[in-house]
Amino acid sequence: MTTPALRLEGIRRRYKSGAGELTVLDGVDLTIARGEIVGLIGPSGSGKSSLLHAAGLLERPNEGHVTILDQDAWEMNDEGRTALRRNNIGFVYQFHHLLPEFDAIHNVALPALIAGRKRKEALTEAERLLGVMGLSSRLHHQPAQLSGGEQQRVAIARAMINKPALILADEPTGNLDPDTSTVVFAALSDLVRKEGAAALIATHNMELAKYMDRVMSVDHGKLVQRQ
Ligand code: ADP
Ligand code: MG
Prior knowledge:
There is one protein chain. The chain has 6 helices and 10 strands. By secondary structure, the protein is an alpha/beta fold. The chain has a single domain, classed as P-loop containing nucleotide triphosphate hydrolases (Rossmann fold, 3-Layer(aba) Sandwich), CATH 3.40.50. Strand 4 and strand 5 form a beta hairpin. Helix 3 packs parallel to helix 5 (148-160), helix 4 packs across helix 5 (148-160) and helix 5 packs parallel to helix 6. The mean pLDDT is 93. The protein binds adenosine-5'-diphosphate and magnesium ion. Residues 15, 17, 22, 24, 42, 44-50 line the site of adenosine-5'-diphosphate (ADP).
């Protein structure tokens, strides 16, 4: 068996709330293989973002292990963990966070340039990914010249530029109308499968469940399989 992209074991996350404490994740276990797309559904406040933040090494859980490609992230030092995240995890958010003064191809290429790849190589790869996203004719458009769905597809291409093993997406279509959501979601799942990545995608849109290999929800701090 190949190494899973993500393994969560016994994740507990508590937040202080007033005088008391709120347990949002109460012993979550989840393993995602490369090539697998897992949906995370559930009402607002159920803990989807908390789970994604733990998986993305953005917040240290109170308890449990987060393993990315066989590396136990919280056993590493800060530098090692930052490198683990930068090299292996791509993030997609509800808002695209594209740089307004850069065109599509440069927005997508930027994380590769930051990672030290050659300019020509980064731009060639950015062009390829935008092609897969159906945006070959939008390479030199700035974000303001793109539709919401196109902006989000640029953000997805950007998340993939450093060939992450794992894509974490938090309500990636939360800002889009239903038809555009379907197009963007199909593009995201196509790209994840084509590149052999794993994905964990929070959404409240059950229509999108058909693109997932598994659908889970957070229910009173526990992960429950829905499909
Ligand atoms: P979801 O993404 O499913 O809407 P979240 O993971 O954002 O849920 O939040 C789950 C619960 O944890 C919510 O009740 C929220 O208010 C609480 N919560 C999230 N972050 C914090 C925080 N930093 N401090 C206190 N409570 C928080
Ligand atoms: Mg959320």
